[in-house]
Design brief:
heterotrimer; A alpha/beta (519); B mainly alpha (359); C mainly alpha (307); B: 359 residues; mainly alpha; ABC transporter involved in vitamin B12 uptake, BtuC; two-stranded antiparallel ribbon; 15 helices; 71% helix; 3% strand; globular; C: 307 residues; 13 helices
Chain lengths: 519, 359, 307
């Protein structure tokens, strides 16, 4: 076996089959020492499955993984770490109620004492210019800090390969810049990085090489620095991107949906308190709300949709009618519909059929109930028309919601609300985890609904999405909403700083958060 | 050869209805083996417990009478279980409902009139509801887990029963035995001809059918199902979680209370300290074996009634201890829970050759 | 004279508290791993009857205790297999285990009703164990000392050892623990087995030390009180000890009130006291805490890794 292979990691024909889906089909690529290599692909292209096999969380059905020139069997994550592979998960593998130190200890395999470990952690932090308090409980940390735990946990093992799964989706632009610094330092020391993303500009900025996946197959290799974003996007999506048709000179009507001084106490230990939220949406307008995850977006959706009621009726008004103290059913009656971020278990019941899921929110506006008895025929009819109208791929209205792919379920949920012709539609993260085709269809549907005179509130962490379809936007941070900006003249820098919670440099942001947690 | 479990894309409906049958069959097979191993006549036990009560028509009346309270209680419990409300104190609600009805009977003792019996039944239902309202209040107001409180309340109900029988409600002409007066004719349920089948039996079956309709077709049934399947989605759909907890506990308590007063005003004809026989716990098995569906519960109620009647037969014919019935009943639930996985997963036989190629 | 009464009351309290402490310690570890086993009462009964039967046959209470632990563990393994390997509903399976335990124990125990067995000798010299004052420290069954030792051991295990850290991690987030490479199912099996062994000892404490005899359902719902105790203690072993002795005191009150001819309230009310006290305590602790989220985050959620 030759040790002189120039590749750190090489995949040869890796295949993984799930019931009904071929997640990875004969995937092959290679990463050199010190290379930052991008794994580029849409949601559902098979990136996460692939890296889970490299990290030993899953086993491939066929094909082989070659590590430093040797064919290896990665039995489990422990074996991967022993080989020198570290991983930072997209959904962090952290334990909320435990301290940073305990979290890091859990990721280490050796029997190191707590104090020894702490010393080593401080060394790594200093080495890479990172700040993190080892004794803080994870649930009190910001998303950026949580990610840092995962990074430190991986760095402590002095890895030869670091896998980063969609690391920037929850960071502010400034935090992203800081992360890229760290990654470049690592790469300069010879550590290879496998960087998974679907964000093209990041890959162009950071990566030396890229492998593009589509539908589980490798569809291209390229040097991102020599490609344009459009050319990579076309490889990723397979075909030309469909442009959203949005009229240039859009006319807005009168103020339709007015939120004025809305404050709601956060639920439970980890809830964010909404603090004096005010904004106005005119008829025909799409109002975007940007922000880093966990800054009150969920709470805002619940409060606007009526799942959590405000104490003062006048804080939420639709066409002058105060709705603040009403529940979801009455708000829907008055024309306010909402689509939450989480599809399975919130926006839809996975175990229920699509027609039952239609009953869930459309039963009153679509006349499905007489004398407390549900008219199954009407419900099925409505579900069928949503399926048809929004080209939902499903076996029919009796298919369970859980059997649909993420994108199709999202189309069904959006369709279910939009076909009720709401006066106001509140949506949160409508294209999260959805393939590009479905995302484009959803965006188009939102724009069309606005063109018909509805007011739309779009809560999203995806700045690109907001800049593409919103007319005005504001930023939510720690439960407070910034001033409203017109999308046409908003600057990314300013939005980024507002997302971080301060007007100033990232270091100040850091200090600000430190202070907050001490208090 | 290896057995592999593979996730189904959709839960299998046929397995949903087939697994209770499989569970009962497995109980009979494994039960026969186990009881043989510990020195009893295993096959005989299974024959006497599961077959004799069905094959011998003399026992059919007993089956109906035993099944009625089990079906009633299980219907009420199934509503809660579907909404993830774990009322396991039905035994206490059954006792308390019976006591409330008995209270009415003792207060109206010596009176006559058609209204007495309905009033007793109403008191039974309300008694059960009141008793279930305590865990409901604690759960909705103070977030105290209803599993523990409803169960603790059962022990309290037993002590209350003992106290009343020994003290205030003791039959003054009863030679100091701790039991209530015998109910009068206007206080007992009418019987069909000279059978032991009382009015409560057909009513239990009828109520099960009503419950089926409500659960399957109404917005209320929908609400219960959504709250159980996805509480966040329920809130999003406009259903209040606390209301659901209240409704399911009150319904569970009401049905248990009704079953309680049917038993006192039926087979017992008075209140006695031996009244609690564990129907409230067995009904939990009935509810699960019936897949939490009212029509399934009718069948499951009959099956558990068979095991009770059969257990008594086996005691006299082959000397099987009374406790064997409980073991058979628990085994049914174990096997049902074990085979439950077949609803969501498919069994795949993997040959070693194929496995090797895969790795 | 007052002191002797006081000491004997104190000793009864410790006696009555020990089994619920043991059972609750086991359940605490189970719940810390993210599993809710409601079958404590059933496992206790199986332990009680096994311990009694083996002691009665072998004449050795030590063998009896060991057998009770094994029987409790085996019963817990039924629960473990159903809930962990077959992902069955934990609440329903726990209930099934209790119903099964009641049936099995009365079947096995049929031949032992009314019999007596040899019980543990004191491990301390009689001078200490029967001394009028010092017996408050030295006059107990070895099981009592074992229960206190186990409280300290469980506290130390959870707080300061690596396996304890892993166990807590599994109960906190099964998916995270799985993705960094811990065997969630394996850890939970171990915890469930421990819970079973502890419930087994707790059960045989009734049949071998406290009564000592066998009667149907002699644990009388104490397994459920042990479950409530874990909630009361907010999943902390130290508070568990405190809570167990508090409950022991309530239970003992019934006994002593009866003995003292206390007749203001009906004896049935006194018998209902432990259960009423449990409800009251559960209500009170929920009043005090704002959110009650000290429970392990993955408690009672089934886990099935995709491979």
């Amino acid at each position: 076996m030759s040790k002189s292979s120039k590749y750190r990691l090489e995949l040869q024909g890796v295949t993984k089959q799930f019931p009904g889906v071929l997640a990875n089909d004969q995937v092959s690529f290679a990463v050199q020492p010190g290379e930052i290599h991008a794994l580029l692909g849409e949601n559902g292209a098979g990136k996460s499955t692939l890296v889970k096999m490299i990290y030993g969380v899953m086993q491939p059905d066929a094909g082989s993984i070659v590590w430093n020139g040797e064919k290896v069997h990665v039995a489990n994550p422990k074996a991967a770490r022993k080989m020198g592979i570290g991983m930072v998960f997209q959904h962090f593998s952290l334990f909320e109620a435990m301290t940073v130190l305990e979290n890091i200890a859990l990721g280490m395999d050796g029997g190191m004492s707590q104090s020894e470990l702490e010393t080593k952690i401080r060394q790594v932090l200093q080495h890479y210019d990172l700040t993190l308090d080892p004794h803080r409980v994870v649930s009190t940390l910001s998303v950026g800090e949580r990610q840092r735990i995962e990074i430190v946990r991986a760095l402590l093992l002095e890895p030869e390969l670091l896998i980063m799964d969609e690391p920037t989706s929850v960071l502010t632009p400034q935090e992203v810049a800081q992360l890229f610094d760290t990654l470049r330092k690592l790469s300069a020391r010879g550590c290879s990085i496998l960087y998974i993303s679907h964000k093209l500009h990041e890959i162009k900025e950071l990566c030396d090489g890229a492998t593009i996946l589509r539908g589980g197959q490798v569809v291209g290799e390229c040097n991102p620095r020599q490609e344009t974003s459009t050319s990579m996007a076309e490889m990723m999506i397979g075909g030309n991107l469909k442009q959203i048709e949005k009229g240039d000179s859009r006319e807005f009507g009168d103020a339709k949906f007015v939120v004025d001084g809305l404050s709601v106490e956060g639920e439970g230990d980890f809830g964010v308190t909404l603090n004096d939220i005010s904004f106005t949406v005119r008829a025909g307008e799409i109002f975007g709300i940007a922000g880093v995850a966990g800054n009150g977006q969920n709470e805002l959706l619940l409060a606007l949709g009526g799942e959590v009621r405000a104490s003062v009726a006048d804080t939420i008004k639709l066409d002058g009618k105060p709705l603040g103290t009403l529940g979801t059913s009455l708000r829907r009656y008055f024309g306010l519909c909402a689509v939450p971020e989480e599809r399975n278990g919130h926006g839809a019941v996975p175990d229920f059929s699509l027609s039952d899921n239609a009953v869930l929110t459309a039963r009153n506006r679509q006349d499905m109930v007489r004398w407390g008895i549900i008219n199954a025929k009407t419900a099925t009819g409505y579900a069928s028309s949503v399926i048809e109208e929004f080209s939902v791929k499903a076996t029919g209205p009796s298919a369970t919601a859980g059997s649909l792919s993420g994108g199709n379920l999202q189309k069904f949920i959006m369709g279910r609300e939009i076909m009720q012709v709401p006066e106001v539609l509140i949506v949160s993260q409508p294209t999260w985890g959805v393939d590009a085709g479905a995302a484009a269809a959803i965006h188009q549907a939102l724009v069309d609904l606005a063109d018909n005179g509805s007011a739309i509130v779009l809560i999203s962490q995806d700045l690109d999405e907001l800049l593409a379809i919103a007319d005005e936007l504001a930023v939510i941070n720690e439960g407070s909403l910034s001033k409203t900006m017109s999308v046409a003249d908003a600057s990314i820098d300013e939005i980024g700083l507002l997302m971080g919670g301060v007007h100033g440099d990232p270091v100040a942001t850091e200090k600000q958060t430190e202070k907050r947690h001490v208090a | 050869m290896l057995l592999n479990l593979e996730l189904r894309r959709e839960p299998s409906r046929s397995m949903l209805y087939l697994t209770p049958v499989i569970a009962v069959l497995l109980t009979m097979i494994v039960g026969a083996i186990v009881f043989t191993l510990i020195g009893y006549d295993g096959p005989g036990a299974v024959r006497e417990i599961f077959l004799t009560p069905v094959l011998d028509t003399n026992y059919w009346q007993d089956l109906g009478v035993k099944a009625a309270p089990l079906i009633l209680i299980a219907i009420g419990l199934s509503v809660g279980f579907r909404a993830n409300v774990w009322n396991i104190g039905a035994e206490g609600q059954y006792i308390f409902g019976a006591l409330a009805g008995t209270g009415v009977a003792l207060a109206t003792w010596g009176m006559e009139g058609w209204w007495i019996l309905p009033l007793m039944c109403l008191a039974g239902v309300i008694g059960g509801m009141v008793y279930a309202a305590i865990p409901a209040f604690l759960r909705t107001r103070l977030r105290v887990n209803e599993i523990l409180t409803s169960l603790m309340m059962t022990y309290v109900a037993i002590q209350l029963l003992n106290y009343l029988m020994r003290g205030p409600w003791k039959d003054p002409e009863g030679f100091n035995f701790p039991q209530s007066r015998l109910f009068t004719e206007s206080q007992t349920l009418p019987y069909f001809g000279d059978t032991i089948v009382h009015l409560g039996v057909p009513l239990a079956f009828l109520l099960a059918i009503v419950a089926w309709f409500v659960m399957a077709k109404s917005v209320f049934g929908f609400q219960i199902r959504v709250v159980g399947a996805a509480p966040h989605a329920a809130r999003y759909g406009g259903f209040n979680a606390n209301t659901t907890v209240w409704m399911s506990l009150l319904i569970g308590g009401g049905f248990a209370g009704l079953a309680g007063i049917f038993e006192t005003a039926g087979p017992y004809g008075q209140m006695v300290p031996q009244f609690p026989t564990g129907y409230g716990f067995t009904a939990i098995i009935v509810a699960f074996l019936g897949r939490l569906q009212p029509l399934g519960i009718i069948l499951a109620g009959i099956i558990l009634a068979i095991s009770y009647v059969g257990g008594e037969i086996a005691q006299t014919t082959i000397g099987l201890p009374n406790a064997a019935t409980g073991i058979f009943q628990a085994m049914m639930l174990f096997f049902l829970l074990a085979t439950d996985i077949l609803v969501r997963y498919r069994l795949r036989i993997v040959t070693p050759a194929k496995l090797e190629r895969a790795s | 004279m007052n002191e002797t009464i006081f000491i004997s009351i104190l000793m009864t309290v410790v006696g009555a508290s020990t089994p619920i402490l043991l059972a609750a310690l086991g359940e605490l570890v189970v719940e810390k791993s993210g599993v809710l086993n409601l079958g404590v009462e059933g496992m206790m009964l199986i332990g009680a009857v096994t311990g009694f039967a083996v002691t009665s046959v072998s004449g050795s209470p030590l063998l009896g205790v060991l057998a009770a632990m094994i029987a409790g563990t085996l019963a817990a393994m039924i629960f473990g297999y159903l809930t962990l390997s077959l992902t069955a509903n934990q609440v329903a399976t726990g209930l099934a285990l209790t119903i099964f335990g009641i049936g099995l124990s009365s079947l096995v125990g049929e031949g032992y009703v009314g019999k007596t067995v040899d019980i543990f000798d004191s491990i301390f010299p009689a001078a200490l164990a029967e001394h009028s004052f010092l017996r408050v420290l030295f006059g107990y069954s070895p099981v009592v000392y074992f229960s206190i030792f186990m409280t300290v051991a469980v506290a130390w295990f959870l707080k300061s050892t690596r396996p304890g850290l892993i166990l807590r991690a599994v109960g906190e987030s099964d998916s995270s623990a799985h993705s960094i490479g811990y065997s969630v199912i394996g850890v939970r099996y171990a915890a469930v087995a421990f819970g079973g062994a502890m419930a087994g000892i707790a059960g045989c404490y009734y049949s071998l030390v406290l009564t000592p005899m066998w009667a149907e359902q002699l644990t009388a719902g104490r397994g459920w009180i042990a479950l409530a105790l874990v909630v009361f203690a907010a999943w902390r072993p130290g508070r568990l000890l405190l809570g167990a002795y508090l409950f022991g005191a309530v239970m003992t009150f019934e006994l002593h009130a009866k003995a003292a001819g206390f007749s203001l309230v009906a004896p049935e009310f006194l018998a209902a006291m432990p259960y009423l006290a449990t409800i009251l305590v559960l209500a009170l602790i929920s009043l005090r805490k704002s959110s009650g989220s000290q429970a392990p985050a993955s408690l009672a959620k089934p886990f099935k890794p995709s491979t």
